[in-house]
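Justification of computing resources. Each target in the renewal requires a structure prediction run like the one illustrated here; the chain below, 364 residues long, is used simply to show the kind of job we budget for.
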Amino acid sequence: MANSTVPQCSKLTSRTDFTDYIKSIKVVTGNKFSLIDSCRPEICNALWGSGNPDISGTGMISGYILQSALGFTFALALFSLQRAPRKVEEDSTPNSVVDHLSTILAKGYSSFYDCAIFLTFSIQIASIVVLARLDFGVSASGMGDITAKITWAVSLLTMLPLMHVAFIPNPMYNRLLEHRSKQNLRFLLFAVCWLLSLYPFYSKMMGYFGPTLIGNGPNHAISDEDWGIIEATCTANIESASTKEIRAMEFFGVAGSLILSICTLLKIIWLGAQRQHKTSKFAQILRKCRPIQNSKLPVMFLTIPPILAISQIWTILRLRQFQAQISNNTGNVDFDGEWTFGQVVRVTVFVPVVVECWLSWQND
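Resulting structure tokens:
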């Protein structure tokens, strides 16, 4: 009831399309944005969200960090062992120790990749579903603005620990005597996950650089002044992310996705040229680059992806902190603090990696 002094806030508890939701606010408040404070919990929850434990819950974030830590630790350990000093004498024990550790780590890394690639596949599918529902105005349930940004970061973060195995010319599983077809299958699965991650990347680019619905033009859903009232109401007494922090989140998010896409496309071109056009001049040029590739790529993929992963973990934690503050400030429940069925599964999904390493240690 637009003319009522007490707005019917129950009509503002959820939203689908942003423009329609702003119209609903105007209808409920009689176009008097000074009354928004009466519907503060409903409006702030609908626009910014109060967390989604299946995306940014404590267990999920722990799983993201564990996946990144395991991936980069395995890669660094095997990289170091491959370059460890080796004696040539037949009775040299250091060699046997290095070989033993390398085999255990290689088997553990292989198990990790198999677990991580299918987990990443499922996360990309889930990201597409929730983001598409939000972007096309189907439903924004559990997907406030902050949760959408966290989903963008999660989509990229889960891909980064897989880059080292996917792009190194001589995979670290050589000592396992794996058939090359299995190595190629790993990259194929990675490429499928990359294709799926393109939609979250597109959603992110539209969110950062697409046309805004906030402004004073005729095509805008809400004026800058009215939006400022809503924002001030929801973020009162809260330390919001600074402009530098926001720019850093945008830079590392876009840069990480671009680096991932460029590397994947170059690897696809490389494989295509080697497989279909072995005698072409282009393939010959690529083969001449192999010594550089073999020497530079391992170092590159041991430095750049971890830096990008740390930036995405920081983005997720910073956004989650801001969202929790809004929820507590507006009297809503911070659902990210709750443990759900999916979070428990997420944390325990890499148990086979530990089992594989332990069995290799006992058997070898």
